[in-house]
Structures
1.
Amino acid sequence: MQQELKIQNSLSRQKEVFKPIHEGRVGMYVCGPTVYSDVHLGNCRTFVSFDVIYRYLTYLGYKVRYVRNITDVGHLEGDTDIGGEDKISKKARLEQLEPMEVVQRYTVGFHDVMQVLNALPPSIEPRATQHIIEQIDMVQSILDNGYGYVENGSVYFDTNKFVKETDYYGKLSGRKVEDLMTETRDDLKNQSEKRHPSDFAIWIKASPEHIMRWQSPWSVGFPGWHLECSAMSTKYLGQTFDIHGGGNDLKFPHHENEVAQNIGSCGHAPANYWLHTNMLLMNGKKMSKSDGNSITPEELFTGNNPNVSKGYSPMVLRFFMLQSHYGSTLDLTDVALLAAEKGYKRIMEANQTLQGLQHSGNGSASELDQRIQGQIAQVHIEMNDDFNTPKALAVLFDLATTINRLQGGQDKLSDVQPETLAQLQQVFQDFLFDVFGLKDETATGGGQGNADLMNGLMDIIIEVRKGAKETKDWPTADLIRNKLGEMGVQLKDGPEGTSWTRDI
Ligand SMILES: [Zn+2]
């Protein structure tokens, strides 16, 4: 079943065979949210995309170290590199809060949304304010290597020198160096302090009213936004690691400057593969609060927004996101969400039917059997082709038709080998739940799914208690009986074994 995994690498603009630096292990860094407001739905798409990538790499057997940071300092208003107010400081000032209260509130909110979307937590979630020392060290190395200069307490990256001595600047974003070095950009302020207009700040001297500030060799100030990702990815994944990801709006200047900083400080480019997710549109346009074309995750779940006719569950939203490739734009509309809701229900019901199919034990290697085996392989082929979730889902939908025909008797289980049915059952379980990270919401609410789950869980609990009794571990056996009793579940030990009843 093993084929090569191919990844669209933003750095080479090509699909490349994925080869990790260390066999069997993957280091992946994804730029996390700036926690000064509720998480944007577009960011949710990015993080769900990387969650699926993380899950699929794990499914393939890689030991993945997934680092996703929390930006809690240094990200300035208007994405400027100096001169704008720090987004978190500004929110703290407006709401009369401590900056860390702002950070705490929106970090918790972000985690809540990630949890309802069933996105796994990363292996490490470092915060910029907890890595000031590492950032100061990196600024110092950049200065030591001659790629930075100090001006009035702030430290700037010397892009002119970097361009002259390396051929890296502009490579990731595909921008021409000549344009980068001549154009004036809104995100670059304080031009008078810089030697060259495209130089960017890596340490910023704090103005007197700036709340978040740290002592450094150059001034009391704070690190530049681009710097934190360079410092934290290096700390946790090494000077060069496998995958660096983020939304494609971060490609320039954020990621381009990260590459410059890493090479400027240690002589190595940070990542071998750069992955960028595309934009989430709404009704064919960029989301924008000012013209009403926007929706928050919460509004989408409750339906409390004029752009949707009803609320959609988090799993329907996740399923909707899976229906497009992470590298394509995705257009969120009410019609598309309604269709996703139907598709999600259909695939979950097909899975329930599939898991209930019982094979009599005799089956032939018929044409049908071969087709199912081919489709099982195809699901993997699609995912190995740059994590193509929509195509993998399309194959599962084809299989759903076959499953319904097997259930309805139009196709015969005797034309399917028992091993093929077992494989099919496994593939649906693995992909729907482990790789795509969906949960079966159609089975909740007291239906048959819940009863089956309850019976299954009780079988496990009774088995564990039996084991405890056999080894004369009476405290464990009694604990199980007493705790179940508190929940209204009574165990009865008899000659036939243990049975259970539930208080009404
Ligand atoms: Zn970043």
Note: The pocket of zinc ion is lined by residues 31, 229, 254 (CB under 6 Å).
2.
Amino acid sequence: MKLPAYIFSVAPMMDCTDRHCRFIFRQITEHSLLYTEMITAPALVHGNQERFLEFRPEEHPVALQLGGSTPKELAFATKLGIKFGYDEINLNMGCPSDRVSQGCFGAKLMTLPETSRDCIKAMLDVSDGTEITVKCRIGVDDADPYEMLPELLELFRSLSIKRVIIHARKAILQGLSPKENRTIPPLDYDLVLQCKQWFPDMILCINGGITSMAQSQEFLARGIDGVMVGREAYHKPLAILKEVDEKIFQSSKGRDISVIMDNLVQYVESEVEKGVPIRRITRHMLGLFSGIRGARTWRRRLSSPQFIDNQGVTGLRDTLNTLMVNI
Ligand SMILES: Cc1cc2nc3c(=O)[nH]c(=O)nc-3n(C[C@H](O)[C@H](O)[C@H](O)COP(=O)(O)O)c2cc1C
């Protein structure tokens, strides 16, 4: 039986999970669900839609994350995402950035149930069978998460939202930077586990501070429906994603590392031929060998503009060949 992709996903991360990054992840894990960075609905209404939304068919399963607080714009962006072929459209209700909360969306939406309801309804109205999901926090500012989160889940359920990804810490909208908001508010995994008991009919995925396969497996064993990993997957993709297909999806072991590397070099080559600056892709590869001998040389070379600009794809291939001897 094929397990649903949401049981293990890689989180949406601005400036990180663009199409190049997702292609890299997809070479390492065939089955995990990959999320785009948050793309705001107004950007899709006014900006270059192709540039924001294009992706390669190999990236599937892939979910588009939207930010917004205007139902009309979110409906437009949802329709567009579906037209481009995304497998899921996710609403960001967890981002604590000032810029975003002033625009009244992200985590701020958690404090505005009426607006949230209108936004989600507008997305569902145009969803045409594509799943609409939400990513939120356990609470915001002084609100008690043990009241706020269940109330929110109740609202989602009443709207027929089936799947929710919960970042298991509060968002503090004033006084903490987005980065601090990913470390300072304490994690409360127990509340998310408790919510699964209260809402057994909903699909609840847990996120925040997950750094190992063992931890992911433990959450699944304790009844959580899915695990979402962000920073660990970005900074050490091989270390965590290489095991996912076998250990979480109970599928075959996945591609051999030499095949992954060949595919990556071919990808870089083909994108560079199309005019993509090489560093736009290689910046996502810095952590590829974290924990493996030779990782430092790799990181140093890849982060050196001279090396990358002068040696290009040939330098990348040669460095990889040298490193592969250590693996
Ligand atoms: C650089 C960066 C950018 C992020 N951008 C987004 C985003 O666009 N949308 C979103 O919902 N969460 C965003 N997040 C939050 C992550 O999706 C995730 O909830 C958070 O990092 C906690 O998971 P982790 O501990 O596994 O990293 C971002 C996190 C990081 C580190």
Note: Residues 11-14, 16, 37-38, 65, 92, 94-95, 135, 167, 182, 207-210, 229-232 surround flavin mononucleotide (CB under 6 Å).
